Amino acid sequence: MAKQFKPETLCVQAGWTPKKGEPRVLPIYQSTTFKYETSEQMARLFDLEENGYFYTRLQNPTNDAVAAKIAALEGGVAAMLTSSGQSANFYAIFNICQAGDHFVCSSTIYGGTFNLFGVTMKKLGIDVTFVNPDAPEEEISAAFRPNTKALFGETISNPTLEVLDIEKFAHIAHSHGVPLIVDNTFPTPINCRPFEWGADIVVHSTTKYMDGHATSVGGAIVDSGNFNWDAYADKFPGLCTPDESYHGLTYTKAFGKMAYITKATAQLMRDLGSIQSPQNAFLLNIGLETLHLRMPQHCKNAQAVAEYLSKNDKVAWVNYCGLPGDKYHELAQKYMPNGSCGVVTFGLKGGREVSIKFMDSLKLAAIVTHVADARTCVLHPASHTHRQLSDEQLMKAGIRPDLIRFSVGIENADDIIADIEQALNA
Ligand SMILES: *Cc1c(COP(=O)(O)O)cnc(C)c1O
């Protein structure tokens, strides 16, 4: 069920095609293990000579069906699920970087990813240089070194809502012989498919719109199959030279376009084990079945909220790329002509104190550490998600201390705006 179907059909049906007498709904294979008849059959699985299930830490049929749906939606050749967006981002980099390597990353990314890359991965000997994604090509190119192995950015950054110029980033990455990895969590493949603009690997926190109901933390990595690892074999020995932990198998030779995902599964998931539970994958799949219906409603409501805020004189500033005056409006029109996402950020006149009072006065919108689900919610990054960052780091990441991140749900827009209005007047 690949590319001949439109996204709406893929959301509902891709990944699981039951045969005669099988369940219509994707079953939860709640089993750690799978049965074989001979010792030889099992041995062939361990040697990656045959494809099959043997232990859920490596692969599980429920997870694989959901990963296949996400791969189809993104237009990739293969995908894998992970236990969280954090583990997806970690694996995406660690699959091609080892101690002594370096990668380049947009400075405007999710706070958790910023810490993972800037602090934790440094402890593993993997170095990162953060660059301003709006800088000219030459400036970003100057951050590359001989040991640079990837370029990373977010399609729409969380929480600063900057839109990535994916074609520019792809051009920079490819001119240095490395893949572009894009975190496409906010627009989802319904609103943007980064592979169509030159990205090579896409990552997701499926915790957000994909699940959509705030039930399950999860992540995904999708491979376009387009990056030619063998053309830069000296940069990617993990993919292009024999893996001693798999009897000298070479991923690019054995798996072609599936080399990257196969290595991430067979090696990283085997050794690090950040699997998504089949139960969570099942819930994620139910969410994906309505992704194409929810995204337009999120965008329509967010547009109404952004327009309301931009006309209110208690509001100091509003960021939403759907607003014609927004700094990223043109880029958004190019990459996401049907809408971006449901997240709007703004600041109130009077600054930080007034912002906090406003948030405490909201009734319909809840203060939660979450974003991008069906229920409208709100968060103050400087006091919540990003409180581990210094003021200097906050400013570097483009986060003003008064920034309110307002995640517009799929309720009625008039009710959401009425809630904002009463809180502004409180
Ligand atoms: C939430 C988020 C993550 C981290 O995902 P978890 O599922 O919370 O681990 C990564 N990237 C972006 C853009 C996010 O919004």
TrEMBL record:
- Alphabetical list of Pfam families matching this protein: Cys_Met_Meta_PP
Which keywords label this protein? Pyridoxal phosphate, Transferase
Q: Does the keyword Secreted apply?
A: no
* Superkingdom of the source species: Bacteria
Q: Which GO terms describe its biological process?
A: cysteine biosynthetic process from serine; L-homocysteine biosynthetic process; transsulfuration
Q: Which NCBIfam families match?
A: OAH_OAS_sulfhy (TIGR01326)
- What is the similarity comment for this entry? Belongs to the trans-sulfuration enzymes family.
Protein's recorded name: O-acetylhomoserine aminocarboxypropyltransferase/cysteine synthase
Organism of this sequence: Bacteroides oleiciplenus
